[in-house]
Amino acid sequence: MSDIATDFTFKHNPLQFRVAWKALKDLIANKEDTEQVFIIMKALSGSSQSRQFQRFMKTENGQRILRERPVLLNTLMDRDYLASLPVGSVGRTYLSFMEEENLTADGLVEASEVSPIDVESEDFRLYLERMRDVHDLWHVLSGYGRDGFGEACVVAFSYAQTKSLGFAAIALMGGYDFNKKVPGHGIWSAIWQAYRNGRKSAWLPAVMYEEILPRPLEEVRQELNIMPPSKYLGSPEVIAATA
């Protein structure tokens, strides 16, 4: 694998704890206010995004993506294509997830406009856009739903994958809030399992998502070593209470 030239310059964003704290409180008050997620992520990004992009550039898929420059969002928005994929495939399951939750692939783009990607490097921008657009795919791959409990788990999983403090903050705040509302149902245990599942699995930022969409979901999970979210699925009361 030969390195390709890139216009990337390492970037460290100052941590903005007060901004993050306000956005966290607003998010807990309304879990559908996705804009707050992007405010939190930017406020607590530090150097994590740059470090992860450096890792991405060293992978075979990362170099391929930077050469070929596929736009993942376009594929995820092509519902006719996704509907043509086999039942049980990653892409077909993703489409069902999006339809059931009344979501669109570009919905995250709209929500992110409150805190837009601010980098000069087009390579870095491509990576950050892919990371923005895979969130709902990670729900599908990891097995966590869009209820508040599921969101807390999937961001714990995402923290293990990316080391972004924003994900950790959302997971901790969510766990604290849900444990007050529905005590005694193993919420922290499920969130901890989600983090451990993220640690054990393959490094998902470097996955060529365009190529796994047609493949069977369970086969892909096994290949990526994504373990079942057993503690989350074993807490239907919390799922229902945070839906």
What does this structure look like?
- With 243 residues, the protein is an all-alpha fold.
- The chain has one domain.
- Helices cover 65% and strands 0% of the residues.
- Helix 7 packs across helix 10.
- The longest helix has 17 residues.
- The model has no long low-confidence stretch (mean pLDDT 93).
- This is Ubiquinone biosynthesis protein.
- Pfam families: Coq4.
Topology:
Layout: H1 17-29, H2 35-43, H3 48-57, H4 60-68, H5 72-77, H6 79-84, H7 90-100, H8 107-112, H9 122-133, H10 135-142, H11 148-162, H12 165-181, H13 187-200, H14 209-212, H15 217-223, H16 230-233, H17 236-241
Helix pairs in contact: 1-2, 2-12, 7-10, 11-12, 11-13
InterPro entries: Coq4
Pfam family, one: Coq4
Protein name: Ubiquinone biosynthesis protein
Salient structural properties:
single chain, mainly alpha, 65% helix, globular, Coq4, Ubiquinone biosynthesis protein
Largest sheet: none
Distance between the termini: 46 Å
Q: How many beta-strand runs?
A: 0
Rounded to an integer in angstroms, the radius of gyration calculated over CA atoms is 17 Å
Element-by-element helix/strand order = HHHHHHHHHHHHHHHHH
| Envelope shape | globular
Question: Given the helix and strand composition, which structural class is it?
Answer: mainly alpha
> What portion of the residues fall into strands of 2 or more residues?
under 5%
Low-confidence stretches: none
Measured as a percent range, the helix fraction is 55-70%
Q: How many distinct domains?
A: 1
The number of helical runs is: 17
Summarize model confidence as the mean pLDDT: 93
Oligomeric nature of the chains = single chain
Protein name: Ubiquinone biosynthesis protein
InterPro entries: Coq4 (IPR007715)
Pfam families: Coq4 (PF05019)
